[in-house]
Give the backbone structure.
Amino acid sequence: MSQNKTAKYLKYAIGEIFLVVIGILIALQINNWNESNKNKSIEKVYLKELLEDFEINLKKSQNTIDKIAGTLPKLISLLEQSTLEKPTISIDSLNKNFSLMSSMPAYISTDRTYNNLIGSGDFKLMTNASLKSKIADYYKYVDLIKLVQSTHEMDLVNTFQPYIIEYLDYQAVPWLRVEDYPLPPAVDKNRILNVIKDQKFRNIITLKIHILADLLDLNRTIEQINEGVVELVRQQIEIND
């Protein structure tokens, strides 16, 4: 009788333990399910914000490409004019083309959502490995393009502007004008004719062309990556919905 009672109690205890374990497992499963749903909801918000940012970035890269592509032919035209016995375009056109030496088409990335993802540690919530890899590629090129643009800015300050000040009439080749405060007419816009055949003139233009060509190549790569990120984000938004 005692043994039966003990066995009965033991069986009861095992049953209770089993129920407790099952209860804990169910609770953990519910908690994991809730956490997963919460993470998916957070990911959805980030994905929509990423899409907004990278659609902006895509337009920026396209605009920068257009500016560079519009500048290069005019600088190449200056090189061609420098080889002629006499320029075939007007003095004003020569100065206007040379004013593009001060042009600095710059790509400035919109990083609001990415900074939030990294700063909050939520980047791990992004479930698409291809998207995370593509974003990493994007920021690798952003760092590179920042470096090239910084070098370009130093060349502008240390090379292009001093050359214009020394050899040309800066009033004739300003890149930016304030419409409310127009400059008076250039005093000696013909100065460009004195230097157009010099090797230094051709070298400085060629340097600018190389810089812009490098920026054009980088911006085309950025554009392709932007397109890839936008496509992957859209796909992931559809999957999550």
Notes: The mean pLDDT is 87. The first helix runs from residue 2 to 82. Residues 171 and 184 are 8 Å apart (CA to CA). Helices lie at 2-82, 91-98, 112-120, 129-167, 192-195, 199-240.
